[in-house]
Amino acid sequence: MPRIIAHLDMDAFFAAIEERDTPAFRGVPLVVGADPLDGKGRGVVSTSNYLARAYGIHSATPISTAWRLSEAARHAGKPPVIFVSVDMPKYARVSEEVMRTVRRFIAKVEQASIDEVYGDLSWTESYEEAERICRRLKEAIVSEVRLTASVGIGPNKLIAKIASGWQKPNGLTVVREEEVETFLSPLSVRVIPGIGPKTETMLREKGITIVNDLRHLSVHVLEQLLGKRGVALYSKACGQDDSLVEEHSEVQSISEQETFESDTLDSHTLFTRLDSLARGVMDRLTLEGFEAFRTVVLTVRFADFETKSRAHTLAAATRDPGVLQREGLKLLMPFLDRRENIRRKRIRLLGLRLEKLV
């Protein structure tokens, strides 16, 4: 029986939800993320719709850069970007609706993130039947959730994921096992998971820009260039992936973070923001269906972008917000004096994460 895997990825998920819920946002460039504060904002873009992407604004773009690109478009006579704050509880609720719909069509699924999911369709025994099911699934999501999704179908998770991004938005791409090499060869090396901007730049300097270039190197050469990671990248360049669809894949942690408008060492400001983060992660703990946590992790990023994380694991699991606030304060206090902050640097970002979830 052939192995047939589907990867479903919602299209510009957060932005699409905002467009769905607010008619005024439709047909205009839209960014979901931090407040740009007229170019002085400190956070990043969470999601941009496809009109905003045409301006060069993508996920993780600094929000100040997004604002400048929007202003440049406005001065060129194009529509300016509308900036919307992140509403994670709403997006999580919509994600649950999508996943319920997916499970009606595919029994064995692995939710990879809030807006993407793998499904094992090997039981269909044919790519034609797998494609038919995925078309019906896409139609159901449009009908029931009023959003679009793109789907990739392939012989493994790697190919399915790359294929789902091939014809966005609202695409469906099928790559059969015998088509893998032809499909991958002309693509940029960036489509290979594990190759980021720095690795791409290093490879480009050596004349390696597409997957076909990567595949024609020996494993030994890639290992010399990239260490053990090079061996794994060679396998991916050949379209190989034995990882299974993990039916009971679970959230490993829940986190919230905030980049401040101004760097600060003011204890009142930091305590207030920490309290807000604690409320946020507790809300998400309930929303994700967990009863308790054991480990609290605090992340601090200084004004010079040095980042430190400190953690404490409790003797017993709890869901007491008071315990979380106390543990967060214990972890934060050393950053306000010379124990963890010898040079008394101001703090740019705070993050709070819960682990060992029950």
Condensed summary:
The chain has 4 domains: 5-11 and 88-178, Alpha-Beta Plaits (2-Layer Sandwich); 15-84, MutS, DNA mismatch repair protein, domain I (3-Layer(aba) Sandwich), CATH 3.40.1170.60; 185-237, Orthogonal Bundle (DNA polymerase, domain 1); 253-355, 2-Layer Sandwich (Dna Ligase, domain 1). It has 358 residues and is of the alpha+beta class. It is built from 13 helices and 12 strands.
Task: Explain this structure.
This protein is of the alpha+beta class. It has helices at 13-21, 50-53, 63-75, 88-105, 127-145, 157-164, 180-184, 197-205, 211-215, 219-226, 228-237, 267-287, 321-332, and strands spanning 5-10, 30-33, 45-48, 82-84, 109-113, 116-120, 149-154, 172-174, 253-264, 293-302, 307-318, 347-355. It folds into four domains: 5-11 and 88-178, Alpha-Beta Plaits (2-Layer Sandwich); 15-84, MutS, DNA mismatch repair protein, domain I, CATH 3.40.1170.60; 185-237, DNA polymerase, domain 1 (Orthogonal Bundle); 253-355, DNA polymerase, Y-family, little finger domain (Dna Ligase, domain 1, 2-Layer Sandwich), CATH 3.30.1490. The protein has 13 helices and twelve strands. The protein has a five-stranded mixed beta sheet. A four-stranded antiparallel beta sheet has the order 9-12-10-11, with helices on one face. The chain has a three-stranded mixed beta sheet with strand order 3-2-4. Strand 7 (149-154), helix 6 (157-164) and strand 8 (172-174) form a beta-alpha-beta unit. Helix 4 packs antiparallel against helix 5.
